[in-house]
Amino acid sequence: MKLEIPPEPVSVKESIRRGLDVHRELEIMNLKQGTWIASPLWSDMGWGRVLKREGLSWQSFMSIIRDHFPYFLDWVLGRMDWDEVMSRLVQRLEDEIEALKKREGESMW
Q1: pLDDT score recorded for residue 104
Q2: 8 A C-beta contact, residue 76 and residue 20
């Protein structure tokens, strides 16, 4: 599976960082919700086409994005770089797809 990693969205990172200073709880909720990154990856970067072909739905993708929140927060705060965050996300997606395929191969009886 080949997922193209987008360039680091530096302006988004700075906007979130400023938001954390002004309205921390609101910005944390926005970051956790995940559409700021999920929508561009799914649509603009074409991940949706690849992931759907592999059996992963938008809803499952969003759940994985939400679970990835601590890494995105570390990225915003400068504790982790973009490439590492995205590598972990891609690895998690690959693991999920592998698990889906394994479940499909098992019989119910």
Answers
A1: 77
A2: yes
